[in-house]
Specification:
- Two copies of one chain form a homodimer.
- By secondary structure, the first copy, chain A, is mainly alpha-helical.
- Chain A is built from eight helices and three strands.
- A two-stranded antiparallel ribbon of chain A has the order 1-2.
- At the A-B interface, α1, α4, β3, α5 and α6 of A face α1, α4, β3, α5 and α6 of B.
- β3 of chain A pairs antiparallel with β3 of chain B, so a sheet runs across the interface.
- Chain A binds a DNA duplex through α2 and α3.
Chain lengths: ~170, ~170
DNA sequence: TGGAGCATGTAATGAGTTACATGATTGG
DNA sequence: CCAATCATGTAACTCATTACATGCTCCA
């Protein structure tokens, strides 16, 4: 029961009923996509694997072989066990930092371009997070979900601060 | 030429001469390990692949089949091309955030334990980064390398701020 | 009704992790 | 010189990404 599989069970639990693969792809993307990326292929693989192990039950296939999945009692227990275990440390893989680290090999101006492009992306993401947070606050959403969003806000603010504080030596290399 | 392979070439470039697989594992761990994890197996696989493609040249095997690798002209060009290309976005996978998001399924107190354990880890990491930064500043190290370290500092500060600002509803769930 | 475009699911490739085997090294 | 321990390299496996095929759907 890895983190991706457990998350799928958790999303099925939260949504009460049964969801198909594509439903789960969409749901996962919006709910946990900002700090736990996953692709269609992963979802289908995990669903098949979980169903084979009896943690999920597959309903009758609908259009285009779409099977709705529901959580079994065994699956629920496995999810709760995963949830209560000590979570491993986060992993960050930030290609831009590699580029910055090797920055002295770049032609003049190139790094500045990359940095301002990245800065724009992060500025936009921060705006989106803040907007979403305001909406969730209005709607009185789950405090746990808002806490994950809050991480996103803090993270993006940190990235932007980092950009802002880069020495000219680096920024205009 | 993926990011891991390119980084290995870059490290070989920076170190001037030729390094063996184990040397590169060590170097990579200390220089880029904080934002680009890689394992021995990856290193050896990439080295073999890069040598097969002529981007690296393998020297004569020393003790225990250890071959020293050096960068070829082709390899250097490939590295520079990778470096100048637009870097893809970072990926973050933070298991603790998954757990927080599903926090309402946790027994009372469990989340608080996880959070304080994680907080201790991040506090320690921040301390280590600051110490290292002070040393690099004294030694007048490469500004680009210090910039990557600065990211680490900003990131850890953000994580700690996030912890500190979590509502009691979440922290003491 | 038919075909363009899109959504869903699958297969093949690539990257990352874990676990293992074997050869050095060092201290007794 | 022998044995315990550690370092180095390899292989098997899991996870993730990319590219593909096929079947809906919706509008002309």
């Amino acid at each position: 029961v890895n983190a991706t599989a457990a998350s799928l069970i958790g999303l099925l639990e939260s949504c009460g009923g049964s969801l198909t693969g594509a439903d789960l792809v969409r749901t996962a993307e919006t709910v946990i996509g900002d700090f736990w990326s996953l692709t269609r292929s992963q979802v289908y693989r995990e669903l098949a694997s979980l169903a084979a192990d009896g943690l999920l039950a597959a309903g009758p296939p609908g259009p285009r072989e779409a099977r709705p999945y529901t959580v079994t009692a065994v699956g629920r227990d496995a999810f709760l066990a995963w949830l209560a275990a000590d979570p491993p440390a986060e992993t960050i893989r930030f290609p831009l930092l590699l580029v910055v680290g090797f920055g002295r090999h770049l032609p003049p101006g190139r790094l500045a371009d990359m940095l301002s492009a990245a800065e724009a992306v992060h500025r936009k993401r921060l705006g989106g997070y803040r907007e979403l947070d305001a909406r969730l606050a209005r709607e009185g959403a789950d405090a746990f979900q808002r806490a994950t969003l809050s991480f996103g806000v803090h993270y993006e603010e940190a990235v932007l601060r980092w950009f802002a504080e880069l020495p000219a030596e680096v920024r205009d290399a």
